[in-house]
Design goal:
The protein is mainly alpha-helical. It has helices spanning 16-21, 29-69, 73-83, 92-107. Helices cover 69% and strands 0% of the residues.
């Protein structure tokens, strides 16, 4: 059997100075993107409820506060009653008209 010569395809080892200059463009790209996405997700998850509270809930609280400081329930009841929205309390105008109609029928 004849011995085959070994074929070496390895590049020669680099010196420490050459190793400092070598850049690996694909090194840790997945990890870096993952960390970037994680930071973005954490910031948005903290920022979104804060913005919702500031721009939605706070103005709504102010509107409710203003409404109930000036709210008069008796006046609102009178408006609903005069508008005919309450079936248990018919409007005063309707009662007067019905009484007039009854009086006219009685006279005839």
């Amino acid at each position: 059997m004849s011995a085959k010569p070994k074929m070496e395809c390895k590049p020669p080892p680099l010196s420490p100075e050459q190793l400092k200059n070598v850049k690996f463009p694909m090194h840790n790209t997945h990890f870096k993107k993952m960390i970037k996405n994680l930071r973005t997700a954490c910031c948005l998850s903290l920022l979104a409820p804060l913005m919702f509270y500031i721009f939605h809930n706070t103005p709504r609280k102010v509107k409710y506060r203003n409404f109930y400081t000036n709210y008069d329930p008796l006046d609102a009841f009178d408006r609903m009653k005069s508008g005919g929205y309450l079936s248990s309390c018919p409007a005063k105008e309707d009662n007067k008209e019905k009484e007039k109609e009854k009086d006219k029928k009685k006279k005839k």
